[in-house]
Amino acid sequence: MAGGILPDREIQHLFDTGGIRAERALDADQIQPASLDLRLGTVAYRVRASFLPGRGHPVVDKLARFSMHEIDLKGGAVLETGCVYIVPLLESLALPGDVRAAANPKSSTGRLDIFTRVMSDGAQEFDKVPAGYRGPLFLEISPRTFPIVVRPGSRLSQIRFRTGDAQLGEAELAALHERERLTSAADANISGGGIALSVDLVGDGAGLVGYRGKRHTGVVDVDRRAAQTVLDFWEPIHRAGAGELVLDPDEFYILVSHEAVHVPPAFAAEMTPFDPLVGEFRVHYAGFFDPGFGHSPAGGSGSRAVLEVRSHDVPFILEHGQIVGRLVYERMAALPERLYGTDLNSNYQAQGLKLSKHFR
Prior knowledge:
The protein is mostly beta strands. The chain is built from five helices and 26 strands. The chain is globular and about 55 Å long. About 45% of the residues are buried.
């Protein structure tokens, strides 16, 4: 198998050969073109604080020390804002020696400002699973803006499997952009192994540039689509002056990239963390972009990247066109059988500024 990110059929093969195990049958749409959705188990543990198990220590040992309360999820349960929960996942791993994995929140999870991180036994960092790992997976969940309802099988996180060195270098990325047009920018800013993305603060014809999450709202059921009214949870933000936005500390914003993005079928992409030296704010919880995102035959003509933005400590002024992140591209080990977009009836193909699927 060539080095790269494992596509859908190779993820299925891992299931068939015991590399991925689950306590119940897979959901029909659980395997994505370049990732696997992870499902919550039957119980959540409210813990005093986030933690890592550390080398040689299983997660359950730390749960025995730090758990404050056990919550049965089987009938659905509310997870409150400002609290930290650990949930054993239905999926566990017995990875081959040459396959490693990395996790990230799903797009809808990030757009709800739900902070999630995957842990494995012996982990010294979040969201990374070493090659050859055998053991359970756990999800740390901390709702930041809205309380949420979850149940067994709810899917908040996703995991990718890799072999070898999949990331494109700067020269390879420039050559791919020359062939495939990866961004709509007239002059693509390629450096540091990624393509720069900037923020759109001009907005649409009505001047809408984004949304700010409201406080003290009702709950969002993560498994129900189009169940909530936008204005009950979000304050629309319209263009101000020449295109500036003051980010208030600890407020949550949904914005959108100025550029449209294209991920060709033989590649996948990921938004890298923004350099804190350039501004004290975080952009984009959910970093995975599947093969076919913004790809014309898959129902897209370039799709803009939705940006989940939070300022820290001090107010920060964003300006239209300011760089807010970089998109790193990686090779697929093989072409996926289905692409993001029309093949999967994907929620965010050909998107502009768009809230999560839970709002109508």
